[in-house]
Amino acid sequence: MPTIKPEALRGAVAARKRLLGLDLGSKTIGLALSDTTWRIASPLETIRRRKFSADVDRLFSLVDEHHVGGLVLGLPMNMDGSEGPRCQSTRAFADNIQRQRYIPITFQDERLSTAAVER
Asked: Can you give the residue ranges of the YqgF/RNase H-like domain (predicted)?
């Protein structure tokens, strides 16, 4: 199944289900869990990356445990709006997740997110 646009996420996720945000890195995956109203997200866990099967097993364990209905993956776009190698890697990760088990997935542009946090 393909990923969906952010504005379509509400219709794709069952009521009262949470969202899980993923910040993919080469060594870790940072996770943040929303409340059931999708107003607040709090840090949940950092997965130390090993191999995809182990990473996705842990991810789906948390999805089930916390009643997650959708994933939001940070998309590390270049400042000019183009997609570099990290974007391709993130999209491939999403595709591989979908091959294991369907869950609605959308992407969030991460440009300037670090600068906003540091302010």
From this structure: 17-117
**Cβ–Cβ under 8 Å, residues 26 and 10:** no
Which pLDDT band holds residue 111 (cuts at 50, 70, 90)? confident
Q: What mean pLDDT do residues 43-70 have?
A: 97
CB 41 within 8 A of CB 32: yes
CATH superfamily assigned to domain 6-118: YqgF/RNase H-like domain (3.30.420.140)
